[in-house]
Amino acid sequence: MTELDLIIDLHKNSKRQGPGSEGETLKALGFMRLPSGRKLKMADIGCGSGGQTITLAQKVNGQVIAVDLFPKFLDELNERSERLGLKEKIVTLQKSMEDLPFESEEFDIIWSEGAIYNVGFENGIKKWKDYLKIGGYLAVNEITWITNSRPKEIEDFWKQEYAEVDPASNKIKILETNGYSLVGYFYLNQDSWIENYYKPMEARFDAFLKRNNNSELARNVVEDNKSEINLYLKYKDYYSYGFYIARKN
Ligand SMILES: C[S@@+](CC[C@H](N)C(=O)[O-])C[C@H]1O[C@@H](n2cnc3c(N)ncnc32)[C@H](O)[C@@H]1O
Question: Which of 100, 128, 164, 228 has the smallest C-beta neighbourhood within 10 Å, fewest atoms?
């Protein structure tokens, strides 16, 4: 198994592959003034096993195209949507977010939780704008500084991991410069990281190591995640996932 296979293996059979919660997906949705009287078309990009996709499909009158690069996550989402009677409302699509087969102005809503960093925030919001109807909504979240300054250790860590880490004010400026108007912003609460993401992940470490024969590569994957968790616990007052909800002008 490659390191990527192992990372997918660690995250399979989990409700979420990143921090978040149903309540915060609904909070983001609540900023949108959606047209009634017709079915809406949504894309959920980097959906993983569909924590937020299920919520969107349950709450919005319309269909979600749920995109992810990895079939394992999409298979899990298909099973869940079948079980919940949402098969007609969720269509899964295995594609890279860099190569989406969408048409101009196809969507009322483009959603992406914890995934836009794979193409970069500015690049993603620029490219995806074309797929949105005028007046349509974008909802994306990603790593954001929540204070004006921070200790060097955490600043260096995130700059190294993701060069576009920034305070919300800079991200909002990027949205405005690229033809969006912000309609809402908040950042994820600490339970969304600890209770919904890190604790369930920690609970999977033993079984993950066992089924991967306690290999060195598997142990490294666990250690990397433990370091990320420890950094979060130490510096959680300085960063979170900022959730940006914006309307296409
Ligand atoms: C941090 S996870 C977030 C998953 C889910 N949205 C959630 O919040 O639980 C990032 C997701 O992006 C997907 N991903 C990574 N690179 C991708 C790409 N190039 N195209 C599409 N999806 C990608 C991963 O498979 C993963 O499901």
Answer: 228
Q: What is the pLDDT of residues 195-249, one digit of tens each?
A: 999 999 999 999 999 999 999 999 999 999 999 999 999 999 999 999 999 999 9
Q: Identify the burial level of 157 via C-beta atoms within 10 angstroms of its C-beta, where 0-12 means exposed, 13-18 middle and 19 or more buried.
A: middle
- Residues 135-139: what's their mean pLDDT? 98
Give the chain's domain count: 1
Contact 145, 24 (CB under 8 A): no
Q: Ligand 1 pocket: which of 45, 70, 74, 192 to mutate (most atoms <8 Å of CB)?
A: 70
Question: What's the pTM value of the predicted model, to 2 decimals?
Answer: 0.97
Instruction: State the Cα–Cα distance between residues 174 and 154, nearest whole angstrom.
Output: 23
Q: What is the CATH number of the domain that holds 131?
A: 3.40.50.150
The two tokens of residue 15 are 């409700």
Residues with CB under 6 A from ligand 1: 16-18, 20, 46-48, 51-52, 67-70, 73, 96-98, 113-115, 118
Q: Is residue 140 part of a domain?
A: yes
The mean predicted confidence, pLDDT, of the chain is 97
